[in-house]
Every structure is written in structure tokens, then in C-alpha cells.
Amino acid sequence: MARILIDKLRHAYVQNPQKPEDYALKEMSLELADGGAYALLGPSGCGKTTLLNLISGLLHPTEGRILFDDTDVGQLTPEQRNIAQVFQFPVVYDTMTVYDNLAFPLKNRGVPAGEIDSRVREIAGMLDLGPTLNKRAAGLTADGKQKISLGRGLVRSDVNVIMFDEPLTVIDPHLKWVLRSKLKELHHRINRTMIYVTHDQTEALTFADRVVVMNLGEVVQVGTPVELFERPAHTFVGHFIGSPGMNALPCTVENGRPTFLGHAVPIPGEIRLPNDGGRLEIGIRPEFIKFSGLESGPTIAVEVTKVSDAGRFRIVETRAQEHRIRLLVPEGDPVPSGAAQLRFDPKHTHLYRDGWLVG
Known about the structure:
Layout: E1 4-11, E2 25-32, E3 37-41, H1 48-56, E4 63-68, E5 71-72, H2 78-81, E6 83-86, H3 98-108, H4 113-126, H5 142-154, E7 161-165, H6 173-190, E8 194-198, H7 201-207, E9 210-215, E10 218-223, H8 225-230, H9 235-240, E11 247-250, E12 252-254, E13 257-260, E14 263-264, E15 280-284, E16 289-291, E17 300-309, E18 313-320, E19 323-330, E20 339-344, E21 350-353, E22 356-357
Parallel strand pairs: 3-8, 3-9, 6-7, 7-8
Antiparallel strand pairs: 1-2, 1-4, 4-5, 9-10, 11-15, 12-13, 13-14, 15-21, 16-20, 17-18, 17-20, 18-19, 21-22
Helix pairs in contact: 3-4, 3-5
InterPro entries: AAA+_ATPase (IPR003593), ABC_transporter-like_ATP-bd (IPR003439), ABC_transpr_FbpC (IPR015853), ABC_transpr_MalK/UgpC-like (IPR047641), Mo/tungstate-bd_C_term_dom (IPR008995), NA-bd_OB-fold (IPR012340), OB_MalK-like (IPR040582), P-loop_NTPase (IPR027417)
GO molecular function: ATP binding
Protein name: ABC transporter ATP-binding protein
């Protein structure tokens, strides 16, 4: 295993990049702890697969360094970096049995037969492949073949890092949860550094201890699932994570307090803003808004425009003048019709300047 340090890394697919937009991956520095479970999360084209391929050695960086522990591996091959990679589509040898597919990486490295047998059966048991060990891989379903790919990445005990590039894309939806849970369990059992690339927030948040959120070629925030949800560092994180995403409302700052439509909105901590302007917004997730009852304190006047049933709760859409505000109401709680008052939880209301969290 290895601690991975990414130091001022940039990458361009064009020769002699001159402008910031020439870079598919903007300058970034990042540290991935030895034995951690990480997810690279973001929309298609944000640079997450480029970053994965730079770490694995399938690409060499235009600028910057990648270190495994204290060794610069920027010019080393994937084999020299001692990594295992599982791709989006399963790569298996159809004419081989499941057993031989799993044993293949170990046989190539001259591992003794007894150790190969022990490792293959251990990984097969973890992935519920035991009953199929003597069957040819050609007869398996897509999820069975992807389990083989996962197993080949896990069977080696000497790798520095195991990388997964959207490994559940071809898996039926009802099996994805099972395999995600299995991967999480495997990480706890084998305690190896794992990096998981996905555009699916559910996959990222259920697998990873820490999530690296990316957009437009740069890292926007690194944090635990709770940190990303409760304190998004950028409005993009607030929109991308959560369903529905965070409300972002234009505001001004008056007498040291954010003000929305003439109403002061309490937030935690002091406001310290530079004097060079910028776009100001209040960010609050639908989970932290309630309809106001008889409590005292500041409220926002709205009109209820839409109610959608989502099972355990309802998604209620309201409007304050031209601004949409969504909140979640637990099933069974009353939802007013027409005019209403909203109350924001001050502990979970944040101020953003040009998209970035203030304070």
C-alpha cells in the first residue's frame, strides 16, 4: 500500500498548452492516505478519469509530480507502480474458468500454487463466486463477469492501490447496491488504498470515506459524505450532491448580515468579505427548511406552487417573488396551500461569494 501525494499536477491533451482552457486537468494538489477509500465524483468530462489514469500511469502528466510514499512515479509504468485497475466494462478470458481468471495475475508473478489457491478461494468467497469457480467465464452474466474483474483487482496482496473506473456501469440496478456494499466490506477487510471513479453520488457516498468532488477539470472539495452534505465548499457541490440539491438565493450583506428580499437571514459565525464586490448567495439545503408555525424569529414569505410525493417525504416547491425555494416535508406533516412562511435553520445556512463558501 502507499500514501499518494499529488503535487501541483496539470495535464493537457494538446501539445504546448498556452491558455488555462488548454488543460483538461487544472493545477491541483491532493493527498490520499495509505489504506483510505476515496471516490472521484463529478459529471462526465470533469477530469476524474484523466486524474485516475495519471495516478495509474496510463498517462504521464504535463506538469507536476505524483508520489507513492516518497517516490516520484510520474514516469513509471502501471506495472512499475504496482497498481491494480478495474475498468468500466469487464475484461475477462471467456475460455478460462472463473478460477483461472482469478489466478491469472498471481500465476504471471510466479506466486506458489498453494498461495494462489488460498487467495483465489478467499476472494471468490468474498464475491460469492465460489459456486462458479469451475465454470467457464463465457457462461456468466454481465454482473458475474464484472465480479471476476473486481476479483482480479483484489486477489493480489502486494498492490499499492486498487482503482475502479465506473465499475458498476454494466450492472443491473438492483445488483448495484449489493456490489457497492460488498466493495465497502472488502475495503474494511483488506485495508488497501482504493480509488473509485463515478458520476453517481450514491455510489461515491456509500463507498468512500472521503470524496473528491471535481468539476471542469479541478478539485472543488475533498471531504467526508457528511461534510459535503452539511457544508458544501462551493454551490456546485451543493447542487450536485443531494436530491433535490441545495437552494442558492441571491442576497446582499447589510449591517453584517445576509439579506434576502429585505429579510435578514441568520448564519453561523462572522461575515468577513473583501471590498471588491462579487456575486453573493445564500445556500441552504431543502432538508434544513421548515414551514413556520407560531415560533418567533425571521421568516421568508412564499407561495406554495407544487408538491411532489417522494415516499418518506414530500418535495415542496415554493416561490418568493421570482425565486424558487424547495424544502422537504416528512410524510404526514401538514403542507399549507397558497401563502406560507419559511424558516431557515441558521446552523445550516451558508453564505457564498462567486460560488465559494465564505468563512
